[in-house]
Protein 1
Amino acid sequence: QTVLTVSAEQTTTWVRNFNPFGQTSARFTTLDFIYEPLVVFNRLKGNEPHFRLAESFELADDLKSITFKLRDGLKWSDGEPLTADDVVFTYDYIKKFPALDFISISAQLASVEKVDDTTVRFNLNEPNSLIANTIVSMPIVPAHIWSKIDDPVTFANENPVGSGPLTEITRFTPQVYEQCRNPNYWDATNLAIDCMRLPQLADNPQVLAALAEGSLDWATSFIPDIDNTFVAKDPEHHKYWFTPSSLVSFQLSMTTPDENNRKAFNDVNFRRALSMLIDRQTIVDIAGYGYPLVNEDPSGLGELYKAFANPEVATQFGQYGKFDKDAGIALLDSSGYVDANGDGFRDNPDGTPIAIDIEVPNGWTDWIDAVQISMETLQEAGINVKMSTPEAAVWTQDLIDGKYSMTLNALAAAANPYFPYIRSFNPGDFGKSRFTAPHWDNAEVMDLLGKYTQVKDPAEQKALMDKAQMIVAEALPLIPVYNSPSFYEYNTKRFTGWADAENPFISPVVSNANPGRLIQLLALRPVSQ
Amino acid sequence: MRQLLNNKKAVVGLTILILIILVAVFAPLLTEYSPVKRVGRPHQPPSWEHWLGTTRLGHDVFSRLVHGARISLAVGFGAGLMITIIGTVLGIIAGYKGGVVDEIINFFTNMVLVVPNLPLLLVLAAFIGQASPLVIAVILALTSWAWGVRVTRSETLSIRQRDFVKSAEMLGEPSWRIMAFEIFPNLISIVGINFIGSVIFAVITEATLEFLGLGDPNTVSWGIMLYNAQNASALSVGAWWDLLTPCFALALLGLSLALINFAIDEIANPRLRTGGMLNRWTRMVRLGEGKL
Amino acid sequence: MAFLLRRLSFYIAAFLAAATINFFLPRMMPGDPIQIMFASAGSELSLENLNALKLTFGFIDAPIGEQYLAYLKSVFTGDLGRSIKYFPLPVTELLARALVWTVGLVGIATLVAFTIGTTMGIMAAWRRGTLFDSVVSLSAIFSSSVPAVVVSLIMLFVFGYTLGWFPNGYAADPLLDPAWSWQYISSVIYHGTLPMLTMVIVLTGGFAVTMRNNMINLLGEDYIVMGRAKGLSDRRVMFWYAARNALLPTVSSLAIAIGTVLGGSLVTEVVFNYPGLGNTLYQAIIARDYPVIQGQLLIMTAAMLISNFAVDLSYVVLDPRLKKA
Amino acid sequence: MSDPVLSVRNLNIDYIGAQKDFHAVKNVSFDIAPGEFFGLAGESGCGKSTIAFAVSRLHRPPALIRAGSEILVGGRDVLALDEEALRSFRWREVAMVFQSAMNSLNPVLTIEAQFYDVLRAHTPISRTTARQRAAELLKLVDISPDRLSSYPHQCSGGMRQRIVIAICLALNPKLLIMDEPTTALDVVVQREILQRIDTLRKQLGFSVLFITHDLGLMVQVSDRIGIMLEGELVEVNDAQTIYRSPKHDYTRRLWASMPKLHGEQIREVRS
Amino acid sequence: MSEPILALDNVSKIFGSAGNPVYAARSVSFALRPGRTLALVGESGSGKTTAARLIMREYQPDDGRLLFRGATLGKADRKSLAAYRASVQMVFQDPFASLNPAHTIRYHLERPLRLHQGRLSGSERMAMIEELLARVKLDPALVMAKYPHELSGGQRQRISIARALAVNPQVIVADEPTSMLDVSVRLGILNLLNDMKAQLGLALLYITHDIATARYVAEEIMVMYAGQIVEWGDMESVLGNPQHPYTRLLLSAVPDPDRRFDQTPFEDELNHIDVIRRQSALPQPETLQVGENHFIRPMPR
Ligand SMILES: Nc1ncnc2c1ncn2[C@@H]1O[C@H](COP(=O)(O)OP(=O)(O)OP(=O)(O)O)[C@@H](O)[C@H]1O
Ligand SMILES: Nc1ncnc2c1ncn2[C@@H]1O[C@H](COP(=O)(O)OP(=O)(O)OP(=O)(O)O)[C@@H](O)[C@H]1O
Ligand SMILES: [Mg+2]
Ligand SMILES: [Mg+2]
């Protein structure tokens, strides 16, 4: 029996919950491994699809519907057939129980209809060229099981019936659980793993200890000083590969309650000067142990969305994304931000004082470190900044309401820069989501993004995206700092076939936000002893 | 006070404490680095430039230690004072007034005593969020006075039976005066022990709360130092100086206060005193000058 | 008997009061509990989604009085709701899992510390002024003044990291199934050694100092002198005459000490990642897992009340003067 | 006169201080004959208890019996006894009643246990025999044997003091030391107890060292009296002699300041 | 005989529960007159202190009246109490406990002056303190600045008396003022009380269990048992011719160097201690006059 030992999730006790709709409560091996997605989009390869339950999909020309074709002969792990009925059932189900709809997709769908036993059509409310990305992240559940569940929100699904490679829970204790081969898995020939074992590990140091002694094969965990603490223990087998992920940026509220601050924040020169005063490399090296990737792209795309980047951005506005203390100070001086009242801090050109309070959630230490490092240069440049660390919920609320002056904020990685842009700038989300924290209202960008989902031609799409980038880069509503890494540690002693920098065939991070892990799992081969 | 200075434990304790206080007062003179600026590479081991090495962020550990003493002392003594005042006032009132007043105070005291203190503090601090040292001191004071009330009350109960309280009553002294001028001066040692004990408790608890991540990261205090070191995995990366420095500082402060407390106890209760006479006694017995 | 009844009614009142505070605490704090819960869980949910979840977790929009009654009812029926972080685990079950470890750790550590500390205190008082007394008093002062955080961190550093003699966390080897096997039990002992040692160090000093002082106060009593005059052996006088009486105030301070013990165990559990109540509370606080926090405070208060009551009971057994009263 | 039961010679006792010693007993010598009721009187703090403690060697540091002192009980040098010998000497030869009846019984042990304790420590004895013996002893002091299972707090002060006396008699000691045994009791009870002791003494033949500051009482009950002043024994004599014709000036002053119950009242002595 | 300044008239005070009442005072009546001393004797727990506290108005009587200068005193309120206390003062038993160890002697004497002697200038007050100290035969220069623990028991008791005198009272209640003092200093205090009484015309209630000292200071005596005054009257008459069995018992038990144990009077009483106690504790409502100023409450048959 081939057993793969994995740490995907840190906790002090295992709770038997495999409800795929339970975002915060289900075991992190539920999605992808128990409930196989229709398609896995490969972010590392420009969203190239790996077809899983679906063998193809097709977007209608008017972009108002999308049709998925399932493979023939799919079976649930209990032997029942998996058909288009199950897909339709699932979407009806999340409409009936909105608490299950963790990606809020129902709102975008007009209807979901079965075309034949293996074909399903999703009719959209609005044309959307990117809808497939969203649809595939909703798990499909077996109708014959879930139709009998009275309260699916609290249902723990202790003995899951699924479609993925590893559906059988053979052992479950608070300390460890094992998830084994699905007897009816459609892609069994490619699956070389019999079981996955998940020991309960409570925090980073424990994961590190397990990794260092070689008992873990695959993990995702922050590890300090990884070359010394992990790799050096067995350089031949202990490996890691960190890929850039969510964007961390400084943000200023354009609607901040303080009138004087608001004046400065709405001045692009002030924002540019701030950006030039952020020592990104030091932040990455010290607050991030060198793991994150510096993001000096004023449009915010950076390394993560390199494929979509408009080279014009760098030539025209590139200097505003780079740390240059002198230039930053000079820009402040030339724009009239000088110390008018002699208190040692720079004031607005009209003489009113600026006092910035950078909010970071309590306990988010790497961010706190990053802010502390940034404050040093900002203070040296004469800007009145301090830091406060409210409760995460308070911070979230402040960001949603735009009632803060400055903050660090993060945006999850996505398949396409469209997503970070729409999440950050959509005025419809002002007051609803913390991602729109800057409250930067730009009709032109919104217009471009709206068109972006409604055209199918890649060239046309690129033109739209290029234009949007220029506007964003010029206005600098977000001050990018770095892309945080997604952590991926692995051990080649017992298994081969790992994705790495040389062979980046898929994103191999085992966290439950990355469906690519399914492809990685199937690529693993035991090392013959 | 003179008795304190005759007590060896008190002298050692006071010396350490005064040293720590002096260090805290003259912190800026003692350090060449700012405690909140990066002045070196991360996690440098102790060296000539950085006596106690640097933190993960590259702050000078010695500088933070010295400046951190201020917060630890301020919270310790501030909260200790508040705890003692509340405890003493309520204790004297309950013990002296008796009756319904006593019943009520006593009920609340016992209530507070049976609610586990640290967990409650933890929850309060978490709910309040970004608990600055001042906030910590205040919630400490509001939740930790009960022990003081209990001991002060029981001592007051025994003092109020003493005839000098009665004679003050017979002279027609108002009751506030009896509490403040007749009873209180006789509680000095209890109050002193309560105070020092509360200071120890406050110092420890502040450090604990901050260590658990419920403090304000803007502060430079020993608890925050512990928190940062723990967060930077100081132990697993071998930066022992980062973690052990605040540990030893806290231990030293705790020890000095405990010594003082012990000494006050000995002074208040002559039976506990050992003093030099026992040494002399042992020597004399050994010399054959006599026996028991 | 009347004494016990009076205490019992106090405990019931205290428990009710604690339960009430517990109910109002999260409701007085800024922010929407559900929002806080999910913000900490790190996911972003739409409004509809949030509202649906709110109902699921029983945050009904009823008048506060109605909510309070519902809450009281659930408390007394032993239903503390479900954990959010460990959904759908009932809070009671989560706490039951943790309770085992804490009771083991705290119970044994307290017992050991109490035994060692009291014995040391007794002997030091008996040999007052000797070198033994000085050594015991000084180490007791030291042990009672050093924060549990500091002790546990230093223990972890020395024995966990530097010497590598003991594991750095957890209560047993996670790969072993709980069983009454030697393998599992030895693993539990091996993992428990450092936290246990920490707790013992932190607690012993206090017991030793209290006992020593009580003893010294008692040694001048006539009945102690009479015990010696009666020609009883020193041991008998020391333990049967002095210690037994000196124990009385110590026992009552034990009740208060339990609070300290719980606090100390919280820190120790967090540092050593020991899966007890303290660590569970800490994790719950980090994750703003309200049902767990509330349940935990109740359980801890109940534990304090029960142990106080146990102390009262033992007081009655130890001190015949109370029996009649 | 036969050999004394207790013979104290040149007794010097110091309380060692951090710098200076306190000389509490200065060169005290006296004898107590078998069956004699010897009173030791003197003001508070003059060293009476210190002497009493020394006879059973009950002192604890910082008390120090100076070399050269001698305490003989039944001819045996008490100061030369080792631990074990001392243990069996105590109570078997010299028993002691302490000042406060309230506090000289262990509050957490039953009366029976406190009898058993002392019997067990000196003779191998079964519980039942010990019980019988305890009952007999209680009868001697006129207390019902039911009391054996009581705790001290359940008995009145006078009762407790009588129980202590009964315990004292458990091993038929040669000498009974009573250090202010009745100061906490009212006169009627005091009278009762002392009278009982007197009877028992005549019956059992032990000697008594009686310590008090109540001179009137002392003269009433004692055969001989020693008067102490600041650590020194200033006068030892027959009780009536001491009362009627005191030699020492201090003794005279003491009598002069005692108001009388009958007859002519004393003159005011004004200094 | 002079008019009584303070009198108890059939006062009762009951402690304990309804099911188990403790009569600390049962129909107690007596009167204090200027320039005279009344001694109250009785064994421990007989209710002597309770009587003192009733006079000091620390307790409210459950029954009966307290008369001050002929007027019945009602419920004590703050103001009337203050006035009353300027006239009635108390000296306590324990010289170690009745002075506050935290304050100097000067403070102890200054307080009553401030509270009761109206507005005095500092020097006037100093003069009064010195006068008080001289009156109790202490050297002001030596003791003024000292703390109680630096004084002997006798000296402390003198300070207590001085403090009581400081308010210029008419009545002093002394509750066993010498029982904790050494024989040699006892007489000094008693003499002092006698002098004060004579010089200042004080009415004195002298509470004690030492009948010999009572005889030394008082003209009249009351014997108390179980809350009742069982026999009272002129000192010589009561001591010389005791009528109540309990008084006899008490007198027979009092240590008396003139009589050896075997020569004790009232043998009969001594042999029936328990019977006498039990019977004396029963209510004895009648009063019987046995001499010119000598009464008893005869035991019920
Ligand atoms: N442990 C001690 N250390 C120092 N001095 C002591 C100690 N015990 C007693 N003394 C002193 O020794 C002297 C004699 O004490 P002792 O107890 O023998 O007096 P006493 O005559 O029994 O007095 P009392 O009548 O009050 O019992 C006293 O002055 C006392 O202060
Ligand atoms: N506050 C009280 N509550 C209950 N019972 C009391 C109280 N005060 C006195 N007693 C009881 O009343 C009775 C008389 O007490 P009191 O103190 O007057 O006696 P006493 O003659 O002064 O005794 P002593 O000589 O010991 O001072 C005692 O039985 C006592 O227990
Ligand atoms: Mg004595
Ligand atoms: Mg009294």
Protein 2
Amino acid sequence: MQLFEYAIVNGVLFGLFYGFIGIGLNLLFGVMRLVNLAHGDLVVFGGYLGYSLAVDAHINSLWAIPLSIPAALVFGFLVYHATVPRLRRAVDTETASLIVFFGISQVLEALMTMIYGANQVTLPSPGGPVSLFGQDYPASVVISAALSVPALALLYLYLYRTRIGLATRAVMADEDEAVASGVRVRRVAVWAFMIGVAFATTAGTLTAFMLGGINPTTGSGLTITAFTVIIIGSLGNPLGTVVGGLLVGLASSLSLTQAYATEWTAVVPYVLLLVVVLVRPSGLFGATVRRA
Amino acid sequence: MTTLLEVRHATTGYGTIQVLWDVNVTIPEGVTVGLLGANGSGKSTLLRAVMGLLPLWSGEVLFDGETINHWDPSRRVRSSIAYMSEKGVIAALSVEDNLRVGGTGLAAREVKAAIARTWDDFPILRERRRSPAGSLSGGQRKTLALAKALIRQPRLLVMDEPSAGLSPILVHEMVETLRRVRDQYFVTLLLAEQNSTVLDVAQQIVVLAGGRKGFDGPLDEFRSRTDVAAQFFGLSAPPDVPSNERPAND
Amino acid sequence: MPEDDATPADAPPPPTPHDAAGADRTGRAAPSGRIWGLRAREGRWVRRVVPVVATPVLLFFAPHVYNNLAFLTTMVVYVVLAEGVNLLYGFTGYLPFGYVGFFGAGAYGASLAVVDWHVTGLVALVIGGLTAAIIGLVVSPLLRLSGAYFALATLAASQVLYYVVANEPWTYGESGMSLPEVFGATETYVIALVIMALALAVTVAVRDSRFGLSLRAIRSDPVSAAMAGIDVVRARTAAWFISAALAGLAGAIWAIMTAAFYAENPFDLTISVYAIVFALFGGVRTVLGPVIGTVVLYSLYQYIGISNPQYFELVYGLLIVGLALFLPGGLGSLVTGSAARWRRRRTRPVTGALDGAAPGGGTP
Amino acid sequence: MAHRPYRITTGLAALVLALGGLATLSAGSADAASAHAKAGTITVGTLYASTGAYATSSMPEYAGLQFWAKQVDSHGGMYVAPLRRKEKVKIVAYNDQSDPATATSLYDQLISQNHVNVLVADFGSVLTAPAITIAKDQKQLLFDVTGSGTSFFTSGSNPYVVLTSLPVSAVWPKPVAKLLIQLKTKRVAILYCQNDFDQAQATAIQGFLKAAGITPVYFQGVPTTQSDYSTLVQSIKATNPDAVLELGYPNNDIAFLNELKATGTHFKFVLTPFLGQLPSLFTQDVGAPAVNYTYTYAVPPTLVINHVNIGLGLTAFVRQFAPGKPSTVNFLDVAGYNAGLAVQAAFAHATSMSQLGIRAGITAVNGKLQTLEGTFKVDNTGEQLGELLPVAQAVPHGKGFALKIVYPATPAQVKMVNAKAKYPAPTK
């Protein structure tokens, strides 16, 4: 029973982190239907930023969070203007974006390999084990999960307590009607894009902690996890993304405690995704059904 | 009577398919204009062109005597041209959020006041203020769409099929509401309709057939002209069905 | 070369005017008359037969130009995959991100048939194609989805399949597959060419048949297509099976060529991505587009790998971004002047989604 | 319809142009290659991965091979028996980006376009697999450095593949099993990654232990991509094991050790395979204190073999390979160099310049060659039999750690301090 409890807590900790990774993608995909295949690479890029600070500048890697945000906003702004207007004019934006962002993902991976090398890098744990409910958890994991909560709360505030957040939700729910109501979609999209990128890099500074280490190819797996999380939790719904993250985290963690399920751990998110899209394609919290 | 909106030689379409052929419409301030036509006659296309949702191939749209061809839709909405689409509401957002979306760009205080005014004008919406718009009945949805379009107190309200999907009783109520709104908000209405009941609210009728303007004149004259009916029932309409007139279950 | 205006002369007009491509079909009347001294009817057969025959024949002589059979066979395998993507995406609007699942199923189906049942190479190929088709049947409920959801769900399905193959002892998942020699290298190449010819023939058949016409109608507007009496589900499923079987055949010949591999190789997601990129680069909804896309991009891939390895990913990534942004109609659009059409379409405002003029966007 | 045939022509013309471009490209690269393949040089074709999953291991291996070529050329080349003279060595290398499909066509490129004399495989089973097929098909001699996949060496006699560095993975853990039996451990936990390399070790060790009457209390596979070990460590802890074997790739080993460190979990015996191959990577990513008392396979440079009859001894190699930074030399550097030595020995005793003639050179020296990896001996499938994989344990040494061989006792040619296993491991 002790093991079961451990797995539950561990699953929650990882689930919060997965939610954090998913949330930026949710903004991009939810607002503009951009299939950002480079999302995971942006996350890893954030991780390398933290690594650089810790190893080269000898300061706590968590400083990467405030430092990366302005950089990510600028980067997001530039990438938005370089790609999105053209993508939105494409005959099929979803597909075109998928290809463009695949290319961007390749470029990012190449840059990371050129700058940091192909080896896995790790960050020293920020402290000794942390005791939760009578059992010990790595400090890195607990800190990362704890930081995910305010980040998710901030996005919630953005979407539900600001005017542009309302416009963002309107565009996510029904772009045509939002335009007809006078919403400036381009402005909403630029901000969603920039914030999405900033969330990716911010979550990234935690990846080296959570995943034990990062290398330039870590990103593609994270992209898939992020898509799984947001689809399970419904597009455009940040609360859903958190729940999606928790589901993936818990299911993966629990499968590791079962004698014959450990080798199937990697399949868990995919099976969850398939079950959700087939049984409830709108996700667990969605209203609109995306069926042909 | 000053001219509020003028459409000059409007020609446009989708892709390479032309839908409108050199359409001229003049809407004087304070006059409710009913745009009539069968499916595919180009009504919605004309409204989209007015709102800037579809660029003109050639021609001009003037508002208050000024050309607004280069204005994007949000600028037109923010400059006193409200648009009530056939759908009219954002189903996933609550009633109140829909109204607030309608007030995008206004100062927070103004939005608050406008919403308070809406609660007085449409008490039914106040009762459902927290419900998602998608959960409203068809009539309530149209009411919300109308209220949302009125949030900014526009000078011109462009409406695409305000009666679509409503039962005859509700259509009648809608006509009453429109009359009330027109007088209360001093708004000029441009409605595209297939349902002739709604004509009761109009003072001027424009008939589109096959993307060209047919009849254009006062309501009484329209009523007395039997030859217009032929145009109205779309005998010369092309087989093309513009996408906005696809079945609602798409 | 988008031959999307390849609707037979007797075809009814497209169901809705908001399919811009369809607009071109009706907007431009095909001139009648003679070309090369052929009547229209014969000309039609020329354009059906020539690509199917000439492409494999041209590639048959490629080893005399560049004698690297492993490269050429892999390239031809990619041509088959790109045509499979073309059938599915180009004609129905479904982007199969997990297309590699069929490829892997074909590779393992054929390999297990050779290793466990000791069947001959040709039988193994057929078994490979069938395995993929059966997998296609199992996952066909995914066809209820659309857009990115479909793309990602197929990806998930291919990953589940990969883990099953990689974990199970009866698929030799962990120890890796090791095949005895089934065909010689040249033989393998020729068989790959035959499979490619089949893929091209299928694409031509789909393009020119009423079946293909229904697929395009569904792509541009499923609801109107259904109202026009097209059995949407059946047409989609048929395209799905054909596409799956082609990928299975490609996987089978790849397995026979590679002979020693692990589950992660034929289930590598980059295979899907490359097939999609190649097809779109060349231009979908055409017959030769995916061929040209694959030949150009895969050769470039090989060339960069040989000449400038350090910046390989960077160059390839930038190339893909540039092409997708500035040549969205694919290479074919350059050849046929579709670029001009594209420029005209560009004049639509950013809010284009609202005017309904974006075919296939979001809800194919 | 009449414009249609015209468009087909354009399409086919484009295809012809594309093929023409391909021909031009290939002509370009063939020119470059023929420059390499000029008379008076022996060309060794190889692949490396500068990016992707295998870059970490592939690049050092390639560096070792390059070092060998430089060494040989600084001595005026290597002796080629059929020509009765020394020849310079040229390495023709392409970047496969860790992608097996690319590797396939590049191996073919090396044979069909560059006409290299022999092939040296890239690191690991996944990237070696396509080379095995091509070597068999095209009857081209392949020096397989570390591709010890079980399926490569089972199909009867194969003269075209020579495994130069490691025994196949199934025989690796024999000393480990014997050590566990010697230490009288009863409760053994085995956690392995699902790949050929680790699965084969896990199964083999399970077999050895069962023969001694020990049934592992925990025997689980996880995906090779696994990075979260927290729940797994708790599961293992729950079985109260005497010994824990974590069989993974470097990233798995590091993540596992970091998890033990972060949660303060202590086991009496922990073994990870890659600590011995990449000690400096483990120092950097896990830190010496957490690595201490961990067991691993001892490979050069931990295993110091200076008694050699070809090339440099280990000590000299380390000194010359990385002057001033001996701690950065890892096993894969040695393995790359060792593959070069095998090539050198093959040419020195080749009976002809044909592929089988070169292979005959290997047969001539089989079992007699002493390299810095030990005795070089292959069977008729090409499988390596000669080299050693004793068990070592990390023990505190200054600020870092040192690896001491704990089982079996030092073989004659190994100059190495033995130590008694510190079991159970002291708490850190």
